[in-house]
Amino acid sequence: MESILKLLNREKPPRQFPLSDFDRISHELKPCDVILVEGRSRVSDIIRWLTNSPWTHAALYIGRIYDIEDEALREHVSTIYDGEPGDRLVLESLLGYGTIVRDLGAYEKEHLRLCRPS
Q1: Mean pLDDT estimate for the chain
Q2: Residue 111: what are its φ and ψ, rounded to 5°?
Q3: Higher pLDDT, 113 or 3
Q4: Backbone phi, psi, residue 17, to 5°
Q5: Given pLDDT bands bounded at 50, 70 and 90, which one contains residue 17?
Q6: CA-CA distance, 112 to 15, in Å (whole number)?
Q7: What is the DSSP pairing of strand 57-63 with strand 98-103?
Q8: Is it the case that residue 40 has pLDDT exceeding 80?
Q9: Which SUPFAM superfamilies does the record match to this protein (predicted)?
């Protein structure tokens, strides 16, 4: 099973010139925004083919740890994320890893779109 996950998660290299402006998107982000990602993995190719959409992955922007208003949630995120408290964080599910919290910077070289619930 592990070898299948490894095969499906193998990524192509990022584009030499990103199609989106990461700095601008980062500046515009607010907690609860959804970030759409054009994935580069083999499983992303399958999703793209099935959905006829370039957006194969989504992550929920939760902000910095100190931006989280609910004390219990802030404490929980602090226990599962071991980076800096000032890191901008996203919540996402990844094949083979489950649901994780990680730094937004992981998407710096990716093709992204921002979705904001109204």
Answers
A1: 90
A2: -85, 115
A3: 113
A4: -120, 110
A5: confident
A6: 12
A7: unpaired
A8: yes
A9: Cysteine proteinases (SSF54001)
Encode 47-86: b = buried (16+ Cβ within 10 Å), e = exposed.
beeeeeeebbbebebbbbbeebeeeeebeebeeebeeeee
- Alpha-carbon distance of 28 to 4, in angstroms, equals 37
Residues 63 and 35: beta-carbon distance below 8 Å: no
φ and ψ at 103, to 5 degrees? -70, 140
SS3 113: strand
**Domain ranges in the chain?**
2-8+33-115
For residue 42 the two structure tokens come to 């083999």
- Please give the model's pTM, rounded to 2 decimal places: 0.85
Span 73-113, pLDDT tens digits = 999 999 999 999 899 999 999 888 899 999 999 999 999 99
Place of tokens 């083979």: 96
